[in-house]
Amino acid sequence: MRDSQNVFHLAIPCKDLDETYDFYVTKLGCKLARRYADRITLDFFGDQVVCHLDPDGVDMNPKMYPRHFGVTFREKAQYDNLVKLAYQRNVPFFQEPMTRFTGRIEEHLTFFLIDPSNNLLEFKYYHDERMMY
To answer: What residue ranges are annotated as transmembrane (predicted)?
Structure first.
């Protein structure tokens, strides 16, 4: 089981550090932890995302499944606030907000953003928090 003091770590490729910084820090509001010539490290909603400069590692045809990452919010207000922020700051959507599994216990709200290096980010809110895992 995860200790709440520990931080999940994810490394992803990026094609340009300045574009990546603009997307994650300026538009999404993530905190920049460190920046080097070949990568930036971010506080991504409480976890660590490292964007490594690797233009050859960029997926030119991204698909939602199976490769994406993101956050499942416990509070609907947090989900709603991020949707609003994304629209206000013209963050590019890969999939507009929608409801999945309507009428089932695992029904949830979701949307996908796409970063400048074609990494897909999913954000969700489950009506029944028991379905988060």
So the answer is: none
Instruction: Give pLDDT, residue 3.
Output: 76
The structure tokens listed for 122 are 């999913």
- Residue 7: phi and psi, rounded to 5, are -125, 130
Alpha-carbon distance values, 92 to 2, 75, 122, 131 (Å): 32, 23, 12, 27
| CATH classification of the domain holding 118 | 3.10.180.10
User: What's the Cα-to-Cα distance from 101 to each of 5, 13, 32, 131, rounded to whole Å?
Assistant: 33, 31, 35, 12
* Residues of the chain scoring pLDDT < 50: none
Confirm if 106 and 126 have CB atoms less than 8 A apart.
yes
Name which of 53, 46, 68 is nearest 13 in CA terms. Answer: 53
Residue 106 lies in a domain: yes
Tens digits of residue pLDDT in 21-37: 999 999 999 999 999 99
Domain range for 127 is 9-132
Instruction: Establish if 1 belongs to a structural domain.
Output: no
| pTM tops 0.90 | yes
